[in-house]
Design brief:
Distance between the termini of chain A: 100 Å
GO molecular function, one term (chain A): chromatin binding
Number of helices of chain B: 3
Distance between the termini of chain B: 38 Å
Main location (chain A): nucleus
Largest interface: A-B, 79 and 56 residues
Order of helices and strands of chain B: HHH
Keywords (chain A): Chromosome, Nucleus
Structural class of chain B: mainly alpha
Strand content of chain B: under 5%
Shape of chain A: elongated
Oligomer: heterodimer
Number of strands of chain B: 0
Helix content of chain B: 55-70%
Strand order of the largest sheet of chain A: 1-2
Number of strands of chain A: 2
Region (Disordered) (chain A): 1-27, 39-157, 333-372, 407-438, 541-564
Biased composition (Basic residues) (chain A): 1-10
Structural class of chain A: mainly alpha
Helix content of chain A: over 70%
Radius of gyration of chain B: 16 Å
Chain lengths: 564, 77
C-alpha cells in the first residue's frame, strides 16, 4: 500500500503539472480510473501529505486533484489531513466511513466539467476569479478588434483610449463646448428668471441673502391665510371689529387712522404736531401699535414664527409706556376718573361711528387738530384756546363732537392742557389694564407678580438668569391668552355636558385632552408635584366627599350581597 | 390666619368667568391654576430650549414669543 502510494507520488506530479496546463487529457482519465478502481489509495495520499515535506505537501493536493482537480488545493489539505486516521487504512467498518469513501469515489468518477461545476462555489476565491478573468481577457482582444481607427491603439482598452482622446489633437472640440457652457451658465433659463422677476439682478457671488428674503410674497401669503384660517383668537378680534362691540378696538382703529390721515392735509398743523408731539406721538403710536399688535400677534404667533421682528418694536414701546403712564396721570385724575371714562367712551363711540359710516376724515380730523392743539398749548393755553382752534374747521359733526369735548372739559376746567394729552392716553391705558372678553365681560390681565414668581421658579432649573421685564410682559400676555383659551375650552365642555357651571370634571377633561392627565398621571399627583400644600389640601377637601359617596355605594352593594 | 395668597384666586376666577360667562364650581379654579402652572412650566421650558439654541442667555421675550403658539396649541383641548 505504502509502496503504491510512493509510486503514485512519483508518477503523478509530472502528469499533473502537465494536466494543469492542458486542463484535460488522458492522464486524468487514467487517474480517475485508478481512483475509481482503488478507493483505498486515498489514505496513502494523505499519508504522503502528512509525512511529506513542504514540496511533498505541494504535491499532495495535486494528488488529491485526482478526486477534485481544481479545488484540491484547498479542501483536501485541511479536511482529509485532519480527518486522516490510521484506522482508515483498514477497510472502513462504520457505515459513515463507508459512505464517505463511496462519495469520494463517486466524486472522483464524475466527469471533469461536471465536477468543476459542483465545486465552483467552493472554488470562488479571488485568485480563481482573477485567473478566470485573466483567461477571458487574454483571449478576447485578439478576435474582437473593435476599434477601426488606429491599429496601434487596438490592443488598448477602451478606458485607455479615452485618455488618448484627451491627450490627442481632439482637444479642440471640448474647448468649443466649454465656452458654450459658460454662456449657458450666464444666460441659463433656470437661474436668471426667478431673480429678475422680483429682484434686482445680482451676480452669483454677491451675498444676496437679505435681498432674496424680501417678504413681499411671504407676507401676502401669511396674511391671507390669517383671514382664512382664523383661530379663535383672531376670530374674536375680527368679530369685535365688525360688530363694533368692542369700543376699544374700534377706537383704536379710528385713532390710528386719525393720526396720519389728517396730518397730510393740514400741513401747517403737521409741523407743529410733529415738533411738539415727539414724546406723545411715540407713546401714542406705541399704544396703538400695541393695540394692533394684540390682535395681530395672535395671528403671527400662530402662523409665522418668522415674524418676531415685527413684534419686537411694538413691545419695545409698550413696556416703558406701561410704567410711565400711571405715574403721570393717576395723581391728577383720581378724583374725576369715572365721569371722564364715561365721556371718553362716548367719544370713542362717536369716533367709531364716524369712521365707520363716512370713512371720512371728519371724525379723524377731529382728533388730529386736538392733539395738535394740545401740543401748541403745551401747558400755556387754556381750554378756550383750543376751542378757538377748533373753530377753524367747520363741520356739523365736528361741532357736535366739540360740544361733547367741551362738556367733558368743563369738568376738567382747572386742568392744564397737558392734562388733555393724558386725557387721550389715559383711557387707552385703562383699556390695556382691563380687557374685555369675547362675551363682553371685563377682566384684568393676570398678576404679574404671580407669573414672575412661577416663571422664575421654572426658569431656575434651566438657567440662573432671572426673567427680564419684556420677557415677563410676553409671559403675562401669553398667560392671558392661555386663560382665554382655557375659558373657551371649559365653556365648550360645560355646554356639551349641559351644565350651567363649570365643574372639575370639565377641567380634568381639558387636561386629559391635552395629555396633562393620563392613566399614569392623575390630577392629584400633578397637584402634589406642582401646587403648594395649601392648595393641594383644598383640592383634597373638595374631592373628599365624592370619594365618600362612592365608598358608601360600594358598601351598600356589599351589604346587599351579604344579606343575600 | 390664612396663609399669604398663593395665587390671585379671585382674579383667576374672574378671568375665567369673563371668558366663559358661567359660574365656577368650588375648586375648579385650583385645577385651572394647576393647568396653568403646567402650561407655564412647559412654556418656560420650551423657551429656554429655544433661546439656548439661539445662543442667548436665559429666557428672552423673543424665544417666548416663538414657542408660545405651539405651547398654547398643546394645551388646547
Amino acid at each position: 500500500m505504502s509502496g503504491t502510494a510512493r509510486k503514485k507520488q512519483r508518477v503523478t506530479p509530472p502528469r499533473i503539472s502537465e494536466g494543469t496546463t492542458n486542463n484535460s487529457g488522458t492522464l486524468y482519465d487514467d487517474l480517475h480510473q485508478l481512483a475509481g478502481i482503488l478507493p483505498r489509495p486515498t489514505t496513502p495520499f494523505r499519508r504522503a501529505a502528512s509525512a511529506g515535506p513542504t514540496p511533498g505537501s505541494r504535491r499532495t493536493p495535486t494528488n488529491i486533484v485526482v478526486r477534485t482537480p481544481g479545488t484540491a488545493a484547498r479542501t483536501p489539505r485541511g479536511g482529509p489531513a485532519t480527518r486522516h486516521t490510521p484506522a482508515r487504512r483498514n477497510a472502513p467498518t462504520t457505515p459513515h466511513a463507508i459512505r464517505a469513501l463511496r462519495e469520494r469515489a463517486n466524486a472522483a468518477r464524475t466527469p471533469g466539467f461536471q465536477r468543476r461545476r459542483s465545486g465552483r462555489i467552493q472554488r470562488e476565491t479571488p485568485r480563481d476569479m482573477l485567473r478566470d478573468l485573466s483567461r477571458v481577457l487574454a483571449r478576447d482582444p485578439r478576435p474582437v478588434e473593435p476599434s477601426p481607427q488606429d491599429q496601434d491603439q487596438i490592443p488598448r482598452n477602451p478606458a485607455l483610449d479615452l485618455l488618448d482622446i484627451e491627450d490627442g489633437p481632439d482637444l479642440v472640440a471640448p474647448r468649443l463646448s466649454m465656452p458654450l457652457g459658460d454662456m449657458y451658465d450666464d444666460d441659463s433659463f433656470h437661474e436668471a428668471p426667478p431673480r429678475r422677476s422680483l429682484l434686482p439682478y445680482l451676480p452669483d457671488d454677491v451675498d444676496n441673502g437679505t435681498i432674496q428674503s424680501l417678504e413681499f410674497g411671504r407676507r401676502a401669503l401669511s396674511e391671507d391665510p390669517r383671514m382664512m384660517y382664523t383661530t379663535r383668537l383672531s376670530e374674536r378680534f375680527a368679530d369685535l371689529n365688525e360688530l363694533g362691540i368692542d369700543e376699544e378696538d374700534y377706537e383704536v382703529d379710528g385713532t390710528f387712522i386719525t393720526r396720519r390721515a389728517p396730518l397730510d392735509p393740514d400741513q401747517l398743523l403737521q409741523e407743529n404736531v410733529e415738533d411738539g408731539l415727539d414724546d406723545t406721538t411715540t407713546e401714542i403710536r406705541a399704544l396703538t401699535g400695541r393695540r394692533d399688535g394684540r390682535s395681530s400677534d395672535v395671528n403671527l404667533g400662530v402662523f409665522g414664527e418668522m415674524n418676531d421682528e415685527e413684534d419686537e418694536p411694538t413691545f419695545r414701546f409698550t413696556i416703558p409706556q406701561r410704567i410711565q403712564a400711571p405715574v403721570r396721570e393717576e395723581p391728577l385724575e383720581e378724583l374725576q376718573e369715572e365721569p371722564l371714562e364715561d365721556l371718553q367712551e362716548e367719544n370713542s363711540e362717536d369716533d367709531g361711528g364716524e369712521g365707520a359710516g363716512l370713512d371720512d376724515n371728519t371724525g379723524l380730523g377731529d382728533e388730529a387738530p386736538m392733539t395738535a392743539d394740545v401740543d401748541d398749548t403745551a401747558g400755556r393755553f387754556e381750554i378756550t384756546g383750543w376751542e378757538s382752534d377748533h373753530g377753524v374747521e367747520d363741520d356739523t359733526d365736528l361741532q357736535a363732537y366739540r360740544e361733547e369735548v367741551s362738556a367733558m372739559d368743563r369738568s376738567l376746567q382747572t386742568q392744564t392742557p397737558e392734562r388733555s394729552v393724558t386725557r387721550e392716553q389715559r383711557p387707552r391705558k385703562q383699556r390695556k389694564e382691563t380687557k374685555t372678553s369675547r362675551i363682553g365681560l371685563d377682566y384684568s390681565s393676570f398678576h404679574t407678580a404671580t407669573v414672575k414668581r412661577l416663571a422664575n421658579g421654572f426658569a431656575k432649573s434651566h438657567s440662573k438668569t432671572k426673567i427680564s421685564k419684556d420677557t415677563l410682559a410676553v409671559l403675562v400676555q401669553t398667560t392671558d391668552w392661555f386663560f382665554e383659551q382655557m375659558g373657551e375650552d371649559l365653556k365648550a365642555y360645560a355646554d356639551h355636558g349641559g351644565r350651567k357651571a363649570i365643574e372639575e370634571s370639565d377641567v380634568i377633561a381639558v387636561m386629559k385632552r391635552s395629555r396633562q392627565i393620563t392613566n399614569n398621571i392623575t390630577s392629584f399627583s400633578l397637584a402634589q408635584k406642582m401646587l403648594p400644600r395649601e392648595l393641594l389640601q383644598e383640592l383634597r377637601m373638595d374631592s373628599a366627599p365624592k370619594l365618600k359617596r362612592q365608598k358608601r355605594k360600594r358598601m351598600e352593594t356589599v351589604e346587599e350581597e351579604e344579606a343575600d | 390666619m390664612p396663609p399669604p395668597t398663593l395665587y390671585p384666586r379671585a382674579q383667576l376666577k374672574k378671568t375665567i368667568k369673563a371668558h366663559t360667562n358661567r359660574p365656577l364650581s368650588r375648586s375648579v379654579d385650583i385645577l385651572i391654576f394647576l393647568n396653568y402652572t403646567l402650561f407655564l412650566q412647559e412654556l418656560v421650558k420650551e423657551a429656554a430650549i429655544t433661546s439656548k439654541q439661539a445662543g442667548e442667555r436665559g429666557i428672552t421675550a423673543k424665544s417666548v414669543r416663538k414657542v408660545r403658539a405651539d405651547v398654547l396649541r398643546k394645551f388646547k383641548a
